[in-house]
Design brief:
277 residues; mainly alpha; 2 domains; two-stranded antiparallel sheet; 9 helices; 2 strands; 77% helix; 1% strand
């Protein structure tokens, strides 16, 4: 997937990383605005790269770990920019931009796909399942990153260290609201992704659930977020408990995305989708 659009996206994400970090350090509003515009340009270039590859191949590029990283980077940046437009937590860009740059770099460094793609990964509804799931994962990942910032800020306040980080991080109330927004957006998307995946599995394999490692881990993550959403809406969970559970969910999502594909065998592993010549 080495094309000019992808390199433009990578350059934009590294540029946005520098601008967001400059904003975090100097707290100059113009760095924030420039970082948002550069990141938007990177998303446009990455979208063009994905469309170009999908047009050439005839299906969504998601068969290798590198391709999956590229899709996740796209979803993470898209979710962040939408959230930043609706509810800006400006310093969050200093985490999202370098993560996106690293994931796109991984796409370029990791081995490219060799061999024909299994017909199981060429269906339109599977592409819908992948997009919904990754957008949900991206939104929930932002909740986890916000949870990390919450714990850092809480530590500053409890230790009465009103210095470097305290002045640059959002208030605890803002970070808790970020947790809620990301949860209410990401959880329905993840749920829709799981449902569409189950329906596609029933259509292609004759069963909704197969106890595949990735399915099990995704279900565990879904249950964690379901508990968090339920407790927030009914009991009024806020603050530290919500941040900790969001971080736990993020760790499970990381294990689901990387571990289930690279370390565990199952029909969700990337090697399952490549037909050896």
């Amino acid at each position: 997937m080495n094309n000019v659009f992808l390199y433009l996206a990578l350059a934009a994400y590294f540029g946005a990383t520098g601008l967001w970090l400059a904003y975090f350090l100097a707290q100059r509003e113009r760095y924030y605005r420039y970082g948002a515009w550069v990141m938007t340009g990177g998303l446009a270039a990455q979208t063009a790269a994905l469309i170009q590859r999908a047009w050439i191949d005839g299906y969504l590029p998601a068969a290798t770990f590198g391709e999956a990283l590229l899709l996740l980077a796209w979803a993470l940046v898209a979710a962040f920019l939408v959230l930043n437009w609706r509810y800006p937590i400006k310093v969050l860009g200093a985490l999202v931009a370098p993560l996106a740059a690293l994931m796109v770099s991984g796409t370029l460094i990791l081995p490219q796909r060799h061999g024909a793609l299994s017909p199981a990964l060429q269906g339109f509804w599977l592409a819908v399942h992948i997009c919904l799931t990754l957008l949900g994962v991206a939104a929930l990942a932002l909740a986890g990153l916000g949870g990390i910032l919450y714990l850092i800020q809480e530590r500053q306040i409890k230790g009465k260290r009103f210095g470097f980080f305290y002045r640059r991080l959002p208030s605890l109330s803002q970070l808790d609201t970020l947790n809620y927004w990301c949860l209410t957006i990401g959880f329905p998307l993840l749920t829709a992704g799981m449902i569409s995946g189950s329906l596609y599995a029933q259509h292609t394999m004759g069963r909704f659930f197969s106890w595949d490692p990735k399915e099990v881990l995704t279900l565990i993550a879904w249950l964690l977020y379901a508990v968090l959403l339920h407790e927030r809406l009914t009991v009024g969970w806020r603050g530290r408990r919500a941040a900790l559970l969001a971080i736990c969910g993020l760790l499970v999502l990381i294990l689901t995305f990387a571990g289930a594909n690279l370390w565990f065998s199952g029909y969700h592993s990337f090697s399952h989708f490549i037909q050896q010549p």
